[in-house]
Amino acid sequence: MHIARPGSALLATAVAVTLSVTALPAAFAAPSSSAVISEVYGGGGNSGATLTRDFIELANAGQSPFALSGFSVQYLPGTPSAGSLWQVSALSGAVAPGGRYLVAQAAGTGGTVALPTADATGTVAMAAASGTVALVSGTTPLTCKTPADCAADTRIVDLVGYGSAAVREGSGPVTGASAGASVARGTSLADTDDNAADLTAGTPTPVNAAGETSGGSGPGEPGGPTEPGTVRVHDIQGTTRLSPLAGRSVTGVPGVVTGVRTTGSRGFWIQDTAPDADPRTSEGVFVYTGSAAPTVAVGDSVLVSGKVAEYYPATGAQSLTQITGPLTTVLSSGNALPAAVVLDAASVPDAYVPTAGGGSIEALALDPSAYALDLYESVEGARVTMADTRVTGATTAYDEVWVTVKPRENPTRRGGTLYKSYKDQNTGRLKVMSLDAASPVPVADVGDVLSGTTTGVVDYASYGGYNVQATEPGTLRDNGLEREVTRRQKRGELAVATYNVENLDTSDAQEKFDTLARGVAVSLSAPDIVSLEEIQDDNGAVDDGTVGSEATLKRFTDAVVAAGGPRYSWRYVAPEDGKDGGEPGGNIRNVFLFNPERVGFVDRPGGDATTAVQAVRTRKGATLSVSPGRINPASTAWDSSRKPLVGEFRFRGEPVFVIANHFASKGGDQSLHGRYQEPVRSSETQRVRQAAEVNTFVTSLLKADKSARVVALGDLNDFAFSPTMKALTSGRVLKPLITTLPVGEQYSYVYDGNSQTLDHILTSPAVRRFDYDVVHINAEFADQASDHDPQIVRIDVKGHGHGH
Question: Is this structure's pTM higher than 0.85?
């Protein structure tokens, strides 16, 4: 499966940030991973208050902007009477990822400090001690006045009841609100649909979409303190993954600016020049400026005031400690930067991460001398430097490159780093990105080297985890990695290959067709049979009921001929519209190409999207009930997933059965670098069931003819050491050929700098003489036609003895 960024071949996937307004039986909207009510304050302008107005603050814990056009915030008194009405304040604009949105409400006569510039303004006079606030899809006033009735209203996105409010989420309202105290959600913005658990009372800290806070100016503008406060950066970072000061405001935190980011998540990093003696506490921190561009420069000595927060870039990810809503005073410029921490084979531990038995590791004290992820957390936001790092993951379209600071850690033959098991992580891997768009990281392939020193600040993101935002990228040393060409099969050898062609359809550029076709005709030396994964219907993502792929396959096979290959024929079974997963509207499927000059296809009519192929015993051996056919397509193991394609071929008078597979993706699995350790591989359950279905079918073939030659191949989306592979090979009906290669060659895919195997070829016991090869033409290169490397096996169908 092609995983552009949202999904992870190695257990990381993106979080879809969408608005859910589906009613649940015992809660309001589903716990949100995006927009929530983050703070409520009804004491503005009251006697004893500091702020002059009430406010409601929204926040976005997701990765995409949350549009607010057509939404509203609504207020109901804590003890509503029969005549009480919800009061509506309409919203507009959007909440940025990780950002805030401030709704000002009625002003009073007390207080001395104005709110920062509001993003929306209402006129509701909220009670200081008790009330209910709702974020609503729509501007029509709500009518519910009990928790049950409000839970049934699908327009409510989030709801907060405070004080003694009758309408609230969960076990009870959050208490403690007053003229001097707001109620605010925790730093993770967790929404468990229980107000008492999710929010706490404290000093009001309103922040608007620009990142401004009360009584202050924007970042870099005058108005801040001129003397350091009592809090240092290492006090903010603390000795665990979570700041002990999260949710609190800090004043005059001193540091030198070490890096500035002007795009995406805007802000800058500061580092203290007077570190403490504790190796667990980082001396650097990110200052998030929201939609406002930073006005500081590297080398500025600054004092930063703002609110400490933990930003979670995705569900299940670790958090990034940051200062939000900053007010920054520049004391001087052109200062020397603090010394960078050296990352190398000696400093990075061999163990990857502590365990929490599947729970969160956030509360565990860091041990940077024992665990690599603890070390990287202990320098989060701080300057680091690496020397002569080898590239283990080619430069991506996002200008990211993976390197290793441990050149001897599980090396592959061609310069990568092999992913060997779930427990044997490669700890020296780090992703490098450039902070200067004018000076991006070099375009590098696996095995190249970023020579000299690469220096930058350590950041954390949902994709790849800890990374280095390079202020000084190393220079490229090109080690000349070449694309492989496998040998041509001999006259008596049947060559069978698998190739994931990454969502191919007629909307793709001719260059993609031509490059993929050269892979078949030249790099694979024109196999007799090719299993193609990810062929889409002829109009790709257009969702109009089209399921055929004739135009796509005609264009692809024409390109093979143009590249010097044979004129291939093809066979496939068209899926039911919208039933096989993949890109919506694409109707992805497996396809057989075969060279009719070398091999024959046995057509047995009757195969369609819903008919199950069966093994048939005859006096001459096994045959198929339909060819081509699909394995048990009605099984729930194939829900929203590609069904295996089975074909009966003849080569030199001998029958060969080929099974093309494309198992379910790893989307939804917890990340290797996430806060839950060990991570749950939830997607594995379906692949194991799929593997069992294929195993059952192969077993039936071998029961009909124990000498049947079977080749099962394709993108299994799982590793050689996985439970999926154990289920597929159960009873020794199939042998995985990847394990017959030298260890340093057992890979066909590179993800997050790990060389790994998702694609496989397996053979039945009757296939005794074979020559197997993974042909590296894509995964290790920045310029790639697919993110998978093809594989090929050459079989002597009449031979005896052992294979290799």
Answer: no
